Amino acid sequence: MAADDRPYKNTVAVLATMHGKERVIAPVLKEGLGLVVGLAMGVDTDTFGTFSRDVERTGSQLDAARAKIAAGFKYAPYARVGLASEGSFGPHPYIPFLPLSRELVLLIDRERDLELTGYFASPETNYSHAVVTDMVAAAAFAERSKFPEHGLIVMGCVDGKPAPGLALFKDVVDHACLERAVGQVVAKCGAAFIEADMRAHRNPTRMRAIERAASDLVRRFRSQCPACAGPGFDVTQRIAGLPCEWCGEPTHVIHSEVLTCQACDYRQERPATCATTADPGRCERCNP
Question: Which of 39, 179, 200, 228 would be 19's cystine partner, CB 3.0–4.6 Å?
Fold first, then answer.
C-alpha cells in the first residue's frame, strides 16, 4: 500500500491501555491507515473493569471501550483520534462446552464525528478455570492453559465460586509463583479458584485476536459507501429465511445482508450466499 494512500498519514491517535496492546494495534493501524499511535500514560483502564473480578465492568463491551477513549481524550485533549480495545469471554452461543473469545478495537474521530469498530470472534482461546485443592490439580490446569507462556490468576474460593475479596494473586508467571499462590489460598480457603489470565500482556493468544480485530477495523474503514464515499460501509443486519430445498418454507439460514453507511444512512441489501435453498437438515418442518 502506498504511503499517500493512507487516510490518516502521520495523524496521532491516543490509545488507552495498560496491557501492551499497542504492540499489535499500532503496526496494523500505521500500515493500514497511517495513524501514529501514542499511549494515554497514567490512565488506569482497570477502573473500567477487570477480568479478575476485583473491579466489575459496568455496561457492555462497547461501553467500556468508549469510556477508555473518553479517558484518553482527557489525557490528550487536542487529539483528533482515540482508540481502545476491549475483550469478552464466555460460552459459545451455539456449541456446548466450547468457549468463545470476542475482541473489538474501537476508533473515534472527533473531527469527522466518526465511530468505527473492528471485530474478531474465535473459539481459539485458553479461557478456562478450575477449582483445585492441591498442586497436582493446579499443575494439570496450568499445562492445559499453556502456562507459563500464558499467565494465570489464583484467587480465593467459596462454595466452588471465585472470591477475589479473600485472596487474589495476579501475575502468576512461573511455577514457583503458582505454588506459592495455590498454597496460600488453599491454606486460607480450603480450595483455590484458578483461571487463565486474560489480560492481553499475559495472554499471547488473546494478543493475536486483538491484532485481527485491528485488521478488521482497517478493512471496515476502507469499505466506502457507494453513495457518499464515507468510510465504514459494512454489514449491520443479517436476514434469515433462506427457503428449504424440500418444502420451500423459510429456515433460520441467513439469505441476505444489509450494509449501511453511518454518515448518510444509505442501505444496500446483498445475498449472503450463492445458494438459493437451504439444506433440509436446517428446516424445522422437515427436520423437527
Answer: 200
Measured CA distances, 19 to 28, 56, 259 (Å): 17, 18, 34
Segment 94-109, tens digit of pLDDT: 788 899 999 999 999 9
C-beta atoms surrounding 287 within 10 Å: 12
pTM of the model: 0.91
Cell of 31: 500500515
User: Can you read off the three cell numbers belonging to residue 169?
Assistant: 494473586
The cell for 219 is 478493512
Reduced to 3 states (helix: H, G, I; strand: E, B; else coil), residue 208 is helix
Helices (H), 41-129: 61-75
Q: Spell out the alpha helix ranges (H) of the chain.
A: 22-33, 61-75, 135-144, 175-189, 204-221
Own/partner pairs for 116-119, CB < 8 Å, 24+ apart? 116/217, 116/220, 116/221, 116/231, 116/232, 117/62, 117/65, 117/217, 117/220, 118/213, 118/214, 118/215, 118/216, 118/217, 118/218, 118/219, 118/220, 119/213, 119/216
From residue 242, alpha-carbon distances to 40, 116, 257 in Å are 47, 30, 12
Q: Look-up: residue for cell 491517535?
A: 13
**For 57-100, how does the pLDDT look when each residue is reduced to its tens digit (9 = 90+)?**
889 999 999 999 999 999 999 999 999 999 999 998 878 889 99
Mean pLDDT of the chain: 95
Please report the pLDDT score of residue 88 as a whole number: 96
Query: How far is the C-alpha of 8 from the C-alpha of 52, rounded, in Å?
Result: 36
Locate 64 and state its grid cell. 467500556
- Answer whether 150's CB lies under 8 Å from 204's CB: yes
